[in-house]
Amino acid sequence: MGGGLARHKHLLLLAAVLFALVTQPLLAHEIAGARIAYDLLVAAVTVGVLFVVFGERWERRVALILLLPALVLTFALYTVSPGLARPAAVAYHLSITLFIAFAVGTIVRDIFRRHAISFDEVIGAFSGYLLLGLVWGNLYVVVEVLAPGSFAVAPAIQWQLDDLHLRRALFNYVSFATMASLGYNDVTTVAPLANILTWLEVMTAQFYLAVVIAQIVGMKLAQVVGAGGAAGK
Asked: Which residues, other chains included, contact 107 with Cβ-Cβ below 8 Å and sequence gap of 6+?
């Protein structure tokens, strides 16, 4: 990765993740070619996460092992028989959940290892927050696939559950709304497991914000104090 790209790697990652999230529901009703093109984009973004977030060789190996089932199942879901569609979908979402959770943990660890922080690290922390939302979005899909009806979905948008891409986009929306405590009533939890995941997401998101922001503020204050002390000599 070139010097300029390396300095802005988290900004590029954030742009790619946002682009994938925004285009997902827009392409869900397009022709098969558009859907496959989108899936290729998502695969490229996840591989980008692998190389941007994981700097050590062992980390990349673990991340690749976690991600590999999702990469294979991304396109296998188009051809799998109806009887295998449910376990294949569950395996896909569990694989991508473990991969993204590993990425978030690595981002937080790297932030705590730093003694100084740049704008790109701040962007990296925000990217970690978005990825945290995707962790729970995938977990919500797993719950709904295994136990249909775990979420009460408003009739006007219930049709989105029948489409692979729209279902993912819907539960990503639910996840981000939950993290922000917006309290929309178009999708609500019904099953006990869904309720547990919801409050766990709220607690985890608040903890992430409190701890990571405190670390970033502390490092910035240390940089300012250090710069002031150097200037006074």
From this structure: 53, 124, 125, 127, 128, 131
